[in-house]
Every structure is written in C-alpha cells, then in structure tokens.
Structure prediction request, 247 residues.
Amino acid sequence: MRLTVVGCGDAFGSGGRLQTCYHLDTGRERLLLDCGATSIIGLNRLGMDANSIATIVISHLHGDHFAGLVWWLLHAQHVAKRVTPLTVAGPVGIEARFVAAAEALFAGSTKVARRFELRFVEMTAQAPVKLAGAEITAYEVSHPSGAPSHALRLNFGAKTLAFTGDTEWVEPLVDCGRDADLFIMECYAYDGPVRYHMSWETISANLGRIGARRVMLTHMNASMLANQHKAAGPGIVLAEDGLVVDV
Prediction:
C-alpha cells in the first residue's frame, strides 16, 4: 500500500500546508482519509486523478477535514465529468452536514442531477464496516464537532493503517493504533496540554503502549513545526505535503 500526504496542515494552514487529506493506494482501490477544503488543490498539485478515487472516509465534521467534499461535488460534476460511483463514509449526520455546507457555499449545487451515484455511509463507534477492501473501525474521541468525532483503524488483510483524526488524548487511541503498520497521529503542539488536541509530550509518553511500527506526526501548529526536529525516535515520520510512504 502507498500513502500520499495530500495535505497535513492544521485548520489555519500553519507553515503554508494544505488541510488534512491522505490518499491511499492499495493496489486495487484508491481512497481518501479526510477531505479538507484544499483537497482538490492538493490532488491537482500532485497530478492525481480524482475520478480514480472511489471512497472517501471522514473522521469528523470540521471544515478542514470534510469541507473539500463541497468542491469535490462541483469538480466531479463540471470539470472531471465523473460517471463512476463515489462512497463517502463518516460520522452520523455526515450527509445532512454536507448538504448544508454545499448549499451555504454554492446554493442549488446539491439539487443538480448528477452523472454519478453519490452514496453516504454513516459510521458508529466499535461497529466495523467493510469499504474499499478494508474493515474500518471507528473509535469515538474527544473533539467537539457537532457530531461524533472518530479515530479510524483500517485493516487490509495483513496491513493496518490507523488515524487519530483530531482529539485530545483518550484511551481508545491505544486500541485504535495497536501494532498498526502506520499510525497517523495529530500532533498539534510540542508540549503541554492542549484542549481537544494532542502534543508531542503526550504522544511520546504513550507510544510504548500503542506499539505501532511507524507513527506519522501531522496537523502541527506553528509551535510544533518550529520544534518538529525534536520529535525524533524509532519509527517516527514527520508529515509534509506531498510525502509518499509505503505501508
């Protein structure tokens, strides 16, 4: 499997980075983890074909993680001329939130007849779903977004990819990332407690309990970016836009 970081920035574009979006190519399927507002920009920069992506999995309903779906709809309809089905999976309420956002930003956009089927799948914690050749399990975390916010564990047979989404430290993260081949962890700050987010200080104290083979630190604010060289250790990967990692 190959993971490409389309965007790894925080909500404010710290360091000039695009918002959260990860492209995963399993060899059979292509999917996205999260779809921040800048996702189409990121895919275009990398020369990636949006029409080749059949599934988008959303961790939580904040704009820097799901709002790219609005531009995705317009791009699919008017630019890419998509005809193949698209499945979007996310927390309960994702379809209603998408429609509300799309109508607020581009009135009437959701009422246009589409050339492609758009299907929404609602995920709940500890209830695995099978999508894109993976068994995906959501874990509820602590990050208020008007709907449940999730960490995600994706099992592709012998390979496991995990993702914290955005959250302060909660114990379910241990199970979510346990022995994963790659655990993408939001590391908003370098040290100290951060409400509804994590710091390197918190993450490093728990890595031994998780046992992931590699950990990718992402979603960094300006302070964490300035100190990222201090976040070192076996298996630690620092995310940056455009980075490609084989899982």
In short: The chain has one domain: 2-246. Residues 94-105 form the longest helix (12 residues).
